[in-house]
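Risk mitigation, structural track. In case the binding assays with iron/sulfur cluster fail to produce interpretable data, a predicted complex structure has been prepared as a fallback.
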Amino acid sequence: MKHPSATPAADVDALFGLDALDTGAPPDECGSAGHDGVRGPAAEDRSSFRDSPTARRLLPVRTVYAEPGSAASARGREILARFPDAEVTEVDSHWRIPGLHGNEGNVERWVRVKGETLVLGERKTLTTRPNGRSADWIAPGASNGCAMACAYCYVPRRKGYANPITVFTNIDAIIAHLARHIARQGRKPEPNQCDESAWVYDIGENGDCSVDALISDNTADLVRFFRRRPSAKASFATKFVNPDLLALDPRGRTRIRFSLMPAADSRLLDIRTSPVDDRIAAAADFLEAGYEVHFNLSPVVLRPGWQEAWTEVLRHLDDVLPDRVKRQAAGEVIMLTHNRELHEVNLGWHPRAEEVLWQPALQQGKRSENGALNVRYTNRVKAEAVQALRGLVASHAPWLRIRYAF
Ligand code: SF4
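Fallback model:
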């Protein structure tokens, strides 16, 4: 499938500011930046990466929409103090901000909005939902939206693609809710695929906690809270290496899951994120800092040569990860789920992504509860691909226990 208006790769890079994470460190022979585990920011003060020029370039916040209660809260005041030059506009609800959310406009606007705009709101509904696959529970997240712009991301589905980060400032209420929920569970009665002994809470369903930590202490507060919960563990997936998280002393009670995919796919699809090699290179530092470090092989996108490309990823993991990381690592395999509406949006700005994401011959549709048409690989295609990927893991990274494949 060819799209005549496809954006050349170099143009896509320029469009999305993919050099935003470039810290100027000279590339080594492998083409990755020289680093000692965490790229670039290691050269800066690790205790304040979020105040570094690199982070400021990624999130040059100029506009803040804030619910009045949020702006007046302790967390809200901290955030506003971090962006003193930003223009603050009061809004009744973080859900209804005319002209901000939605798919209208062009991608330059969306990406600018994601970096330059913040929303402060209060999370009204505090509900923890059962999951059972990646985590036992999905916690009420401390944010919604993301400053990254991955082409397959489902996070913007409710607010539209131009969905900047909404920070929920009532973090104390979220943590109090979690404390009650964890206390009610008692001890985990038996091991399951989520964890041997701890109830696992996914704290980052609708965003990326590493990116959120560039803005506020919500992620830090959650990590510190779980530090004192021996029967529970926080978990979040990330595509961004934020060295500030290394200082949080999680004492094994937070699982960080670095999402991985072949570098060529990531360059095409993982817009604005840290390079995959940097995520892998950061694993040992995060383990040493007290995190449990897992890997998400996700999303797995089927395209010509996908098995060779994943073989390369797995061999690289095997080559560079120290044994101490391998001994505790586990992985999740998540096959691509796509969506017709997202497909149509993407065709307008990033049609090259759709050349690999939208594969009607391999996919089947399924109407979701909210009426959207989700698209997955057919049962047969998916089963064969999962089996093939499991085989690749067994051959090239046999130490990587697959917790589940979906
Ligand atoms: S980093 Fe995660 S939450 Fe952010 S755009 Fe990418 S997939 Fe979505």
